Amino acid sequence: MTLTASEPAIADRLALAREVAGRAGDLQRERYETRLTIASKGASIDLVTEVDRACEALIVGAIREAFANDAILAEEGGTGAGPGAEFCWIVDPLDGTTNFAHGFPRFCVSIGIERRGERVVGVVLDPLLDERFEAVRGGGAWLGSRRLAVSSETAFGRGLFATGFPYDVHTSEDDNLEAFARVVKSARGIRRDGSAALDLCYVAAGRVDGYWERKLHAWDVAAGILLVEEAGGRVSDEQGGPVDRSGRELVATNGPLHDSLIEKIRRRAV
Fold first, then answer.
1. What angle do CA 32, 13, 109 make, to 5 degrees?
2. Dihedral Cα 96, 86, 81, 122, nearest 10 deg
């Protein structure tokens, strides 16, 4: 059994998301550990390569050809259609650019689709492991033919968590380091692998029990949030409330560990 969508408008967009994620993933595999042109987008650790731009051009071009009236929000600037569009594609053509640039095998293609502001499709492809994570609103979260479910862990001390650090970590005091220290002192372990989209997929798959990060962007989280929710997990901001589209403050867990993780990472008054 694999993920399907009953509504034609959703099914058609899911099919295209799968196709273009696969094509972008092929390009990433071809260029992995080859000579790259690397630039900074502001902060010295916020990188972009010609592969990011080529993957985005491929994805955005295919969307515009198939669904000319859909809106597009993409990391490297690709946009399309106006604010009244029914569907909006939110695209990270290469999540984990720093990893890709260094030859560290942890990066992906992430494509989320909203319908009138509601997340309805998420596709995340890890091209090196050939793992495609998918979700449709109401249809569950899937890895190939396997339906995903979050972990059942209830003890924080046995939990494995993931996080990341913002691109302004060198200059900002809101750097996640204190929260990191509190969790690492209390949990079984923390992983910091450099791809928000894959971290969220791993929560959905039960590979990690929770994930948090600050100062993200919509394209980092659009697909992954839906995957966690459809796998039975919980997603919120750091106050436990609804997470907005931007992902500027995100906590995603299996559910039982959610409140405990929020308590550990909550900013402390000086």
1. 20
2. 10
117 φ/ψ angles, rounded to the nearest 5 degrees = 90, -5
β-pairing, 118-126 vs 38-40, is unpaired
Tell me the helices (H) and strands (E) count for the chain, helix number first: 7, 15
Q: Please state, in angstroms and rounded to a whole number, the distance separating the CA atoms of residues 103 and 25.
A: 15
Name the range with the highest mean pLDDT among 44-53, 174-183, 250-259: 250-259
How far is residue 91's CA from residue 183's CA, in Å, rounded to a whole number?
A: 31
Element (H, E) at 136: strand 131-136
Mean pLDDT throughout 32-46? 71
Angle between helix 50-66 and 8-31 (nearest 10): 160
State which CATH number among 3.30.540.10, 3.40.50.2000, 1.10.3210.10, 3.30.565.10 fits the domain covering 8-147: 3.30.540.10
Q: Identify which has the larger pLDDT, 64 or 38.
A: 64
141: CB partners within 8 A, 6+ apart: 122, 133, 134, 135, 147, 148, 204, 226, 227, 228, 230, 231
- pLDDT band at residue 247 using 50, 70 and 90 as cut-offs: confident
Q: What is the pLDDT of residues 55-81, one digit of tens each?
A: 999 999 999 999 999 999 997 776 766
> What does DSSP say about strands 108-115 and 87-95: parallel, antiparallel, or unpaired?
antiparallel
Residue tagged 């900074």 (tokens): 40
